[in-house]
Amino acid sequence: MLEHGNSVETWPERVLLLGANGFIGSALVASLVKKGVNVTALTRQDADLCEDASVSFLTEMISPDDTIIMFAAITPDKGRGVDALTKNVVMMSNLAKAIETSPPAHLIYFSTDAVYPIDENPVHEGTRTDADDLYGGMHRIRELMAQASNNTDVAILRPTLIYGAADTHNSYGPNRLRRMAHQDAKITLFGEGEETRDHLYIDDAVELASRVISRRSKGSLNLATGKSVSYADLAKLIVAQFEQQPSIEGTPRQNAITHRHFDITALIKAFPDFVFTSIEDGVQKAHQQMMDSGAA
Amino acid sequence: MILPVVGYAGMTHLGINSAVAAAERGARVVCYDHDAKLVASLNSRVLHVVEPDLPETLAKNSERMTFTSQPATLHDCDLVYIAVDVPTDDSGRSDLTPITEMISAVEHALNDDCVLVILSQVPPGFTRAIPRDDAQCIYQVETLVFGQAVERALNPERLIVGCSSPNTPLPPAYKSFLEAFDCPILPMRYESAELCKISINACLVASVSTANTLAEICEKVGADWSEITPALRLDRRIGRFSYLNPGLGIAGGNLERDLATIVRLASEHGTDSGVVRAWVKNSQHRRDWVLNRLHESGILSMPDACIAVLGMAYKENTASTKNSPSLALLGNLPSSLNVRAYDPVVTAIPSYHPGIQHYDSALEAVRDAGAVVIMTPWPEFRDLVPRDIADAMSGSLVIDPYALWDKEPCHAAGLTRMTLGVSYS
Description:
Chain A is α/β, with parallel strands linked by helices. Chain A is built from nine helices and twelve strands. Chain A has two domains: 2-162 and 200-223, Rossmann fold; 165-196 and 228-260 and 278-291, UDP-galactose 4-epimerase, domain 1.
């Protein structure tokens, strides 16, 4: 559950965003700048959080009125093993050390729904965190490190799969299916695509993160739409975007079918007037942007 | 048969209804409360609780009833029931102090032969620890149901009696009083009776939780829970009176308290209470059903949206709002929303919602509303005509969790009706 520090939208003196090159980070920076928010966007080139030197760099940079939003991480497409976990923990450790010396007003940690076990449904903020793998475990450790900040309001955001045209990751979801359809004229599913998942459009993720910033919210919140779809239905939505419709093919199933559904009541309570982009509209927007940019 | 004189200490919902039922059964009754104002009001026959038949039954038996704020008046009683409220905190944990304080307040006034009966609900171990001769100390399980309190007190299905040992005969005065109710009397040791009350409530919650769980699946797979329940009721292992109506989570405070007690006892003694925790979780999940439906409808994001809320009490025929789903909903609606509210006995106040306005009838409340939600199944709401509602509203969405209105007239009037246990997509 989230608790708002500001009863109405009130932007902080500055948003310090770590991990500004990533899919979500870059979209959030663009959105905040458009709204006239003072943003300092840091990338690994500005401060490599794996290095000890980042501690003093951040300590000097952080102001007491700042909102820090932490995206920086070795993403799963670059590694899901012990090495990635260790580096990710070091990155958060260096941020935590800087915050201990120079606490900001507000810290938002962008986590993942992988902190919840996959066999738990529906997932809500009260669901016991019990990660199934190192990636989920890593994020849970980083959440706990963020929450150890004594003098800072901390928000933990746990997004489901986020999709959009600019996504560089290639995890099994709308982005990969869209690329398959575009490049191969064929979508290949695991099994017959029976699994259901919740997919959040990038603009919605950015808007929700913006609201958490401007309301100075603390606590934890899952970022999800509350409406899960099967990969088979998702594939049908994607192929419908093409004039020459790609084929959809199943494969012999290697793993058991799993589902993920979210109970988004806490999100509704936090932001009752928030309207999600439907999966139909989101897929259509992402497709249009992809075609406009000429990339897949 | 001359019945014993029966005292009731604590003019609570439980106390007044039990006392009136005792008088109706022919006993002379002394009603004590330390609150002199309340006693004066009861002496003027002005009631502080809402229950069907209570005013009439009280008026009918007035001559046999004495209301007093003086403990000494209890001296002539053969039995004295302790019927105080046991407050619970947000986690459902009981504060038993009012019971011990009431015992201290009245025990010096009791005659040497008087039987003290604890009617307020207590956890296992409480009654045996009372420093009083076991032969004159009883725990009797109350089975108060808000909205049916007089009927239940007058015609109990059985009387569950906790005593020091189930083999010891009940005190004669107490036994003769119980026999006036003409139903089975089940003596058992204190601890069994104390746990029996909790067991009854746990079984009820189990039924409701099962109904809620399956009703939610009905909503997703195109089934209709109301078509399934008659089949279940005709199964003798389930029963025609079983709690199979889905709801908006457990409310009222009593069931929540008992679940908290089970979890605490299991924790203390190392037994498994996972299923009870699941019931609590399910209750919390279903509480927000209406909020979720309103969000899905898009009305919460509309500028100048207006919603009519019918019912604020936690259930029908009561003024209690303890853990009321209606108040929980109001607390989570956007502050910018216009809320038009009506309840037959609860008056809307700004602390429920900053944009709330109270109206004196359901039809006035629904006027110009974009959506109507029926949060308490008051009988009078059943009599509303969907066509009149549709004509008064500006929108067409009706969220009727308890299916007070039939589907066909709603559809004929152009209303979109959402009900628990029925597919709404």
